[in-house]
Amino acid sequence: MNISGLCLFFCLIFTIVSCDEHDHRYEDGSEVVLWMNTVGPYHNRQETYNYFSLPFCRGTKTEISHYHETLGENILGVELEYSGVEINFKRDKPRTDICEKTMTPEAYDELTYAIKNHYWYQMFIDDLPIWGIVGEMDESGKSAFIWTHKKFEIAYNEDRIIDVNLTSEAKVNIKPNTVLKFTYEVIWKPTSIPFAKRFDKYLDPGFFQHKIHWFSIFNSFMMVLFLVGLVSMILLRTLRKDYARYGKDDDLDDMERDLGDEYGWKQVHGDVFRPPAHPILFASLIGSGYQIATVSTLCILTTIAFDLYTERGLLFSTAIFLYAASSVVNGYAGGSLYARMKGQLWIKQLLVGAFLVPAIICSVAFLVNFISIYYGSSRSIPFTVMLSVTAICLFIILPLTAVGTVLGRNISGEPNVPCRTNAVPRPIPEKKWFMEPNVIILASGILPFGSIFIEMYFIFTSFWAYKIYYVYGFMLLVFLILAVVTVCVTIVATYFMLNAEDYRWQWTSFLSGASSAFYVYLYAVYYFFFKTKMYGMFQTAFYFGYMALFSLGLGIMCGTFGYIGTQAFVRKIYSIKID
Ligand SMILES: *[C@@H]1O[C@H](CO)[C@@H](O)[C@H](O)[C@H]1NC(C)=O
Known about the structure:
Oligomer: single chain
Bound molecules: 2-acetamido-2-deoxy-beta-D-glucopyranose
Keywords: Membrane, Signal, Transmembrane, Transmembrane helix
Number of domains: 3
InterPro entries: EMP70
Protein name: Transmembrane 9 superfamily member
Shape: elongated
Membrane topology: Multi-pass membrane protein
Pfam family, one: EMP70
Number of strands: 12
């Protein structure tokens, strides 16, 4: 299968992590492994702990002790441990003991706490996730009951496992200093569902393919058509008028020009290609934006092609791999832009460009990790993973960025602007409040945000609640729509700015594009308070930390879209000889 090929590829890349994905085929009677993963409060999806951190016990078999995780799984907090429960392919098992556990007062307190907080646990059989609830409180909320019997119903099709259902039975009231006996049973059933369709039961077409979803895509699409039409109409008309006025030059005497017929954007032709403030940061942001856009596009396309979401952590590993590999793009875009702006400190730019995004991600991850170690969560990132991430940064990202930068400086590092830049910057005239860059920047984010916020709801829900996002075709559409809307809106915003004789368009176009991410973050705050029931410091920090990262990445990407579009537009309108 292609997936295994891909997996092998990753194994070669991340030699520190080993992959032991089997081929999902079993002989009659051969061992089927039940992996215990994590346990945690239902409402806090990311606050997970190792299953055996609660006073549960293992079965008697001990051959396999720990599963070797891939880098992606490791970062996502997957901690598979062997349950010690014996299951054999196509062999029914009557009710059998797993183990007994004495309820010491501490164990009793821990379990009661877990049951009060609606703890759920997750297991895997043959890579299929299974969820179960630890227990229930009685009506009065005073005494805790725990489910002690696990009934597995497993459906098979020839030599493959298709479906697993878990039923929790035998509710027992827990009391200190008693003995709890855990049991299980296994029932095998034949089915005709093909292996390729076994993941379908986890997907929720009723949620994702809802009319609202289709409608929102349609709506955004209409908006794009309208916006593109509007932008091209306004600009064509205005520009034609401007050009026509300018084209009359030959007929009119020069007097008229000297008397100030030039107005608006043409006035600033001597400043418009002046490099922006903070060129190193600017070039690095644009380079990173190119890289993030590349990674997102490739991730969406590979997921559409290979259904990456069916394998634990695979999408995440793919994203890390693609990010590292696309550092060349970052170096090329950032380095050549910096060279075109006649920047001299190119090594500094190279370092800033290579590590800007990784450094931000690592610092947020570090803070969240700190809290998660304090909580003892399975989300805390092991030292070996930190080492391998550092190794990827130093030995893959840095050299590839350097290669990209050198290529970029040599291939397209020549400044090739259509107008000369005056030696002395022109003063920027006073303007109305709504023409101030900050106002324009904030206003530009509204339309792009409007085109994506329904998709944001679906993405947030699948990440923070128990849904698997699988409609990557929708995502691709929305991604394209977002890019087009952002470009249109920033072009209009820049045109207004230039007409107000404010020539600082580079940062403004970047920030106008990026500002939709600010609204996404505001929406995330709303979502946290009104759509989820998360609580506790760990989950809250995790939510706001990673949402900030998400918004930031989105912002850098959209800002880059805005800059790319505007830059082409500005070159176009100034490329008719003006001076
Ligand atoms: C699991 O439950 C679903 C829904 O109740 C049912 O359609 C399916 O056949 C069950 N699978 C097995 C193996 O019992």
